Amino acid sequence: MRLLGLDVGSKTVGVAESDPLGWTAQAVEIIPIDEEAEVFGLERVAELVKSRQVAGFVLGLPKNMNNTEGPRVEAARHYGELLEERFGLPIDYQDERLTTVQAHRMLVEEADVSRRKQKKVIDELAATLILQNYLDCHGKLCAKL
After folding, report:
1. Where is it localised?
2. Which of 89, 108, 113, 141 is the most buried (most CB within 10 A)?
3. C-alpha–C-alpha distance, residues 103 and 124, integer Å
4. Domains in the chain, start-ordered, CATH in brackets?
5. Which residues pair with 1 in a beta bridge?
6. What confidence tens digit (pLDDT) does each residue in 65-96 have?
7. DSSP strand E in 79-145: where?
8. C-alpha distances in Å from residue 19, one per residue of 26, 55, 94, 96, 103
9. By the 8 A CB rule, do 97 and 62 touch?
């Protein structure tokens, strides 16, 4: 069994998965979505749930730096509700403050990736960081693995 880590944006969802033991997170893919058209990519998530034996979801919670919750937190929670309704699997949330900044820094400073290429992988990397932080903190869903 694995956990899927999701970095939910308004146009894409970055996806990462844990290894079966819950020690490491690896990038999987980016799923295109369109919040305005209410297209959430759940068909692709369903394929991943089935093929990867998913036990639960960890969604990034993009809180503000002062710990308040803005509209993106509401959107992430709504996506979590959609997942729970569709799949009946447990959902947990991980504070994702600065994960995108950390991902950018990793891509630019450590990997010297061009801006054009960054756009293609930034959401996957952010999802990986969200899930790895969750696994490192032994979140409640880790017991499901």
Report:
1. Cytoplasm
2. 141
3. 9
4. 2-144 (3.30.420.140)
5. none
6. 788 777 888 999 999 999 999 999 999 999 88
7. 91-95
8. 8, 12, 18, 20, 20
9. yes
